[in-house]
Amino acid sequence: MSTFKSVIDVSQYQGTIKWQTVKDSGVDAAYIRLCNGTKLDTQALRNALQCRRLEIPFGFYCYWHPQPLALRQAKMLVEYTRSEKANLIPMLDVEAHDDKRPITIINKLAKSVSVIENAFGKPPTIYTGGWFWNSRVKSGKFSHCPLWVSQYVHYSLKAFQRASHCIPVNPGAWAAYALQHKNPAGVVGWSAWSAWQFAGGFDSVGLRYGMQSRDLDVNILKDAEYSRFLLS
Questions:
Q1: Which of 8, 50, 109, 175 has the most CB atoms in a 10 Å sphere around its CB?
Q2: Greatest CA span in the chain, whole angstroms?
Q3: How far apart are CA 107 and CA 220, in angstroms?
Q4: Pair 27, 59: CB distance under 8 Å
Q5: Whole-angstrom Cα distance, residue 58 to residue 56?
Q6: Bridge partners of 230?
Q7: In whole angstroms, how large is the CA radius of gyration of the chain?
Q8: Nearest-angstrom CA–CA distance, 170 and 211
Q9: Which residues contact 155 (CB under 8 A, 6 or more apart)?
Q10: Which residues of 34-47 are buried (b: 16+ CB within 10 A; e: fewer)?
């Protein structure tokens, strides 16, 4: 029995997604980009509608910016999670510093986390990687949030073309594949990760899973952590 769930995350860059193909592929859940800052993703509502129609568990994420409207970004996640009946907790994608100092990012992020936690009784998941967090944020204040760590197992088209980096056709085998390769680097503030985005650029699996785009972000989420992501 698998101890991981296979998850995709998508945005308008995947084009018009064939969600029946996603469901047929065996993917367990999806995270849909709601907004970049406060700008609504052009495919967000269509993607949510299709996930509801096909009963694919889904949640929204925001490409979060530590700007004056940072709090509005969190409120948008709350608003649309409720109105679109998402069943997974929102995600804050924290990889933009916008030339802000760590203390500014920390303070604005703490307020955004509180808005979501107060709305749902659970903190959002935070997507980031050591490559960003450990130099731009450097805080252990958010360890109560599930960590969705970004660390690809390949970094170039040449690396992906090697047979050892061919992502399995069956999503159920994603974890076995990913864990054969480089494990995620540590992220300050967390002792363990809950989910891992292990592939994205150059993976060439988009069409296989119903995307219009060539590439697709693919992730594994620990079964033992899944209850932290469920809203009901």
A1: 8
A2: 47
A3: 29
A4: no
A5: 6
A6: 88
A7: 17
A8: 16
A9: none
A10: bbbbeeebebbeeb
Return the structure tokens found at 72: 């509005």
Half-sphere exposure of 38 (CA within 13 A, CB side): 10
Judging by beta carbons within 10 Å of its beta carbon (0-12, 13-18, 19+), is residue 4 exposed, middle or buried?
buried
What is the residue-level pLDDT of the chain in tens, covering all 232 positions? 469 999 999 999 999 999 999 999 999 999 999 999 999 999 999 999 999 999 999 999 999 999 999 999 999 999 999 999 999 999 999 999 999 999 999 999 999 999 999 999 999 999 999 999 999 999 999 999 999 999 999 888 898 888 888 899 999 999 999 999 888 989 999 999 999 999 998 999 999 999 999 999 999 999 999 999 999 8
What dihedral do alpha carbons 227, 215, 128, 99 form, nearest 10°? -150
Tokens of 198: 């292990």
